[in-house]
Amino acid sequence: MDSMITAAALSLAHGDPLGALDRVALRDDAPALALRGIAMAQLGDLPRARVLVRRAARAFGARHAVARARCLLAEAEIALAARDLDACAAPLADAHRTLDAHGDHANAAHARYLEVRRLLLMGRLDDAERRLAALDPAGMPRALRAAHELTAAGIAMRRMRAQAARAALVRADAHARAAGIAALGAEIESAARLLDAPAARLVTPDGPRDVLLDEVERLMTSTALVVNGCLHTVHHLATEIPLARRPVLFALLRTLAEAWPQDAPRDALILAAFRIRHPDETHRARLRVEMGRLRTVLRGVAAVRATARGFQLIPRDGHDVAVLARPVDDDHASVLALLADGETWSSSALALALGTSQRTIQRSLEALAAAGKIEAFGQGRARRWSMLPLPGFATNLLLPTSLGVQ
After folding, report:
1. Where is 189: in which H helix or E strand?
2. Measured between alpha carbons, how far is 264 from 319 in angstroms, rounded to an integer?
3. Which residues contact 318 (CB under 8 A, 6 or more apart)?
4. CATH number for the domain including 313?
5. Are residues 181 and 50 located together in one domain of the fold?
6. Residues with Cβ < 8 Å from 79, sequence gap 6 or more?
7. What is the per-residue pLDDT across 330-349, written as a single tens digit (0 to 9) for each?
8. 230: domain range?
9. Chain segment 250-270, per-residue pLDDT in tens
């Protein structure tokens, strides 16, 4: 490797893409193509970056397996930055196998961290946490140790563990400063700001009020029965009941919880669950059936008692009831939460991350664009979406969680 390639690589390692391009911008050999691609990625020109690293991988060929695997890793990282979640899966798997086999453990670990970040974006928190725990950052470069802590902080935020997230971000910042990479430090600073932004609304008899993630964490560890309208779960002490797949039951429970300690009228429950403003006896009969199902689901944490005018929620042991609502009241809040990371997303990547159909996502995107909240770039399959500047709020509790994982 010649001196210009070495100098360009060192510039990229310290977050100086322009310095790297000064040295290799006019070269078309395989190492220069790879470094040019990484530099363009750091500058934000992701389509050009992908073209360059692909050219580099082809130029290296099968004879230079490690260099080719590093190009695959760079391409996968660019795809992840472009939120092309499907395209980055196979290259990441191939890259870390090849790099491990040839003893390049630092880059192999980087590939694994990118896999964890991909799982986190898709809401597969258990898988992400399990894979992160299997990685030992000791002995790794400072940049990778910062990435480890930043990923741990992201998982902690999604788990509503504010104190753990703060501690991880402090460690990440220390590693980033030691590495001297300004872009990494900016990413950590951006994540830290989320902890000081409203994460949810707490619905109280006096009206809703914004709460930070720290208060959400305290609430979840209290003795209160928490009806979480952000994640569609019920939480009480060590018991968590997921209701994301049972929207009717959750709508009934939330209405009962918002009326607590009073009862909720039958007409209000029917409106919340079935969207019917003028119910008849058939709807009241259906309400009784759904209330029976709700009693079964809540067994052990709360009871539901029929009253003269409706139904009343009675938490176990007389504990309080708390209702958490989303920090933004929008039918498309989950789409907004993903777009709020500042990256451009395709509709297919949003559908994959949210576990829904692409057509459903397209309808949400069209509605948000009509409301002036997001904008589109490109046409056809190259079309990407991003959020326009909005008042700040933490999106941790709006982001998707895999419905198959409890």
Report:
1. helix 182-194
2. 18
3. none
4. 1.10.10.10
5. yes
6. 50, 85, 87, 88, 91
7. 567 778 777 776 677 888 88
8. 200-325
9. 999 999 999 999 999 999 999
